[in-house]
Automatic annotation (TrEMBL):
Superkingdom of the source species: Bacteria
Residue ranges occupied by any Histidine kinase domain in the UniProt entry: 41-260
Locations listed in the record: Cell membrane
Source organism phylogeny: Bacteria, Bacillati, Bacillota, Bacilli, Bacillales
The protein, known as: histidine kinase
Source organism per UniProt: Paenibacillus abyssi
């Protein structure tokens, strides 16, 4: 709360009274603080790989280049860190386009069962590598939706890649679609992974929020996947929610309005 006092003067310069203005600045301050945090996070996230790249380049310069095996390993580290930075900057640009509404939706008629089968196919290599069984289930009667296929694919890719990252070998992932009511389709990605502790649940969609920073970084994560997913679903007029039980698994459900071509309800 900001309070400003303005004295009211009579013609003879004596004070007749004071106007007090009470201004609620909590929202504004909160916004300002989250902007500051965001800039600090971005700087930190970019500085970490840059520092690594610098020190490995110096080590190469100092002689590591002469030893073939060591040299190759160091170049590999530099390449990995560079790729992570590219992913991070790409995610940041995407978020900023979503924030400023510069990513208009390009809706197209999309067959939901095919879309879900295709996301599972895209990850078949990683799934096989970790012996994770993936099942796709679509409730009868769900076929075509009017949505931005590229953007929803990105949401699905983020959710399924998280599910794989945070599930142990031999686990199970379910990708399913159902119709809770005539106007809504709910798509769910459920895993039997490590889960998320209760205390972290309400912050999980925040930009850069990660339960375990080191682990996420080792897995190649940017900490922006869920925030991007939330913005894309919001732009579609839907909602996204995450439920999780530590050591049991995680379920992310997003809803989309059941629109048909032209924008009307199906
Ligand atoms: P990241 O790039 O780190 O995966 P996300 O925004 O996609 O970033 O996710 C934020 C954090 O939420 C992750 O770092 C991880 O701690 C947690 N998380 C997301 N999905 C899952 C999941 N399926 N199981 C367990 N933890 C998850």
């Amino acid at each position: 709360m900001r309070v400003t006092f303005t004295p009211i003067h009579r013609r003879d310069k004596t004070t007749a009274g004071t106007i007090a203005v009470l201004q609620d600045v909590t929202e504004q301050e909160k916004l300002e603080q989250s902007r500051r945090e965001f800039v600090a996070n971005v700087s930190h996230e970019l500085r970490t790989p840059l520092t690594t790249i610098k020190s490995y380049a110096e080590a190469l310069d100092d002689g590591a280049m002469q030893e073939k095996e060591l040299g190759e390993r160091f170049v590999g580290v530099i390449r990995n860190e560079t790729e992570r930075m590219i992913r991070l900057v790409t995610d940041l640009l995407h978020l900023s386009r979503l924030d400023s509404n510069q990513a208009p939706l390009r809706r197209q008629a999309t067959n939901v069962p095919d879309m879900l089968e295709e996301v599972a196919d895209r990850f078949s290599f990683q799934l096989r590598q970790k012996s994770i069984h993936a099942a796709v289930q679509v409730e009868a009667g769900i076929s075509t939706l009017w949505l931005d296929r590229d953007q929803i694919d990105q949401v699905l890719d983020n959710l399924v890649s998280n599910a794989i990252k945070y599930t142990m070998d031999g686990g199970r992932i379910e990708i399913s679609a159902r119709k809770p009511d005539a106007a809504t389709i709910a798509i769910r990605v459920k895993d039997t992974g490590i889960g998320i502790p209760q205390k972290d649940l309400n912050r999980i969609f925040e930009r850069f929020y990660r339960v375990d920073k080191a682990r996420s970084r080792n897995m190649g994560g940017t900490g922006l996947g869920l925030s991007i997913a939330r913005e894309i679903i919001k732009a579609h007029g839907g909602t996204i929610a995450l439920e999780s039980e530590w050591n049991e698994g995680t379920t992310v459900t997003f809803t989309l309005p059941a629109l048909h071509e032209g924008g009307g309800s199906a």
